[in-house]
Amino acid sequence: MEDFDYLHEGEVYLDAACQSLRPRPVINAVDDYYTKHNSCGERVKYKWGVITDEKVEETREKVLKFLKLPVRKYTASFTLNTTYGINLVLSQLDAKYFSKIMTSEIEHNSPFLASIAFSDRTGLPREVMKRNIDGSINLDDYDFKKAVVVVNCASNFDGRKLLNIKELIKTVHKAGGIVIIDAAQTMAHSVDIVRGVEADVICFSAHKMYAPSLGVIVWRDELDAKMLPRFLGGGMVDDVMKDSYVLSANNKEHRYTRFESGLQAWGEIIGLSAALDWLNSRSKKDWQRLEENYTAIFDFLSSSDKVHLVNKRPNPTMSFYVDSLDSHLLGNALSHENIMARTGYFCVHYYLDHVLHLPPLVRFSFGFHNSPEDTEKIKKVMEKIIF
Question: What's the rounded Cα separation, in Å, for the pair 109 and 349?
Answer without folding.
Answer: 8
